[in-house]
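Explain the record.
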Amino acid sequence: MTLQWTAVALFLYAEIGVILILCLPFISARRWQSIFKFRIWSWMANFWNKVFLTMIIILIILFLDAVREVRKYSSKDLGVGAKLQPNMFDHMHMKLFRAQRNLYISGFSVFLWLVMKRLITLINQLASASATTAALQEQAANANQTAEKYMKDNELLKQTLMDGKADKATEKGMELLRTEMEKLKKELKTSGDALEKSHKEADAVKKQVDGLAREYDRLLKEHQELQNLQDNGNKKED
């Protein structure tokens, strides 16, 4: 194997190892994103697109060269001398085998290089989506807590308003009761005054009745005396 194909084979093995490491299930996408944020990767990110395009061009050129070699040794017709010489026949098949091997190595190298690029992009996108999802979940949790707090505050406010209304209604009721009490007190006072006045008037009437009774007794007594005097005078005349 020549130097260039040895380098391509080593590059293919490195790609397989990197892809296997990137596919490890116990390393999360956010951990990979934190690894990709190291200073060395940040420095390499400035040249990543150029390196990627350069490697794609080199691998495609090697792949096309391998295709050419395969077609060259596949379509080449061996002469009668080559058939009579087994070493030449084996040499041609060995070159065809090497060309096919180089074709597979370069082809898989191009394919895995594209897969690795896409895999790294998807890991970064997944990590960003996970971070966004975590932030949204945290915001949703905070929003739920805030909503619950507002609901509790709203319930307390409603309860306070209801208590305020009840207190207001009670205050109005007490005010009405006080008004009724004042009214009843006034009526009671008026009734008391009227009753007292009635008692006074009754006492006055009673006194007047007693006075009239005494006056009647006195007049009756005087009338009786006058009647007796008149009867005595009539008897004397007879």
Summary: The chain has a mean pLDDT of 75. Residues 155 and 161 are 10 Å apart (CA to CA).
